[in-house]
């Protein structure tokens, strides 16, 4: 009897259930509202992703982000060029130096730093060449300065502006236009990048030189 009663209830529900009219204005309005909410949700998600990407690039590149913005004139182009740098550097086979390489480069730095007092101009040029040697040893290609600086900005963004300043000083050495103070500052900038590329703790090279 229970089964019969249950079956009777089911049949009664089936008879009383109202069919949904898919062409009803109410149904169409609800469907349109749901679709609009989905579109708004997608747009907001995309915009949030773009804002997040912009924030990440600004945080990653620091002053170099502002340099790119000034160079290219608008955020979209500037960010596209910065992403091009990232993709290019990701294609390089960047590697860590071996302990032996690290020691060899550190000894070379100590030697040239010791020559700075007597030969400041020549030492700055040697420092520039030594940094280039470390870059190539780690897997960066030999390239013109602008590309080297752009490549370095991907993983060493905070040191790119000082590197540009040091290189500018080095290029003026041949014209005898750099002051002693500028030469000294250039050595400080080169040493900061040099230590970062060698993956040394700050002042390690200086401490070794003083030992």
List keywords for this structure.
211 residues, mainly alpha, 2 domains, 10 helices, 78% helix, disordered N terminus, disordered C terminus
Describe the structure concisely:
By secondary structure, the protein is mainly alpha-helical.
Give structural notes.
This protein has 211 residues and is mainly α. The chain has two domains: 32-90, no CATH class; 99-210, no CATH class. The protein is built from ten helices and no strands. Helix 5 (99-114) runs antiparallel to helix 6, helix 6 (120-138) packs parallel to helix 9 and helix 7 runs antiparallel to helix 8 (160-173). The N and C termini lie far apart (101 Å).
In oligomeric terms, what are we looking at? Answer: single chain
Number of domains: 2
What structural class is derived from the secondary structure elements?
mainly alpha
Could you give the distance between the termini? 101 Å
Query: For the residues shown, what is the average pLDDT?
Result: 82
- Stretches where pLDDT falls below 50 for ≥5 residues? 1-5, 44-54, 202-211
Radius of gyration: 32 Å
Helical stretch tally: 10
Question: What is the secondary structure topology, with strand pairs?
Answer:
Blueprint: H1 2-16, H2 25-61, H3 63-72, H4 75-90, H5 99-114, H6 120-138, H7 145-156, H8 160-173, H9 180-198, H10 204-210
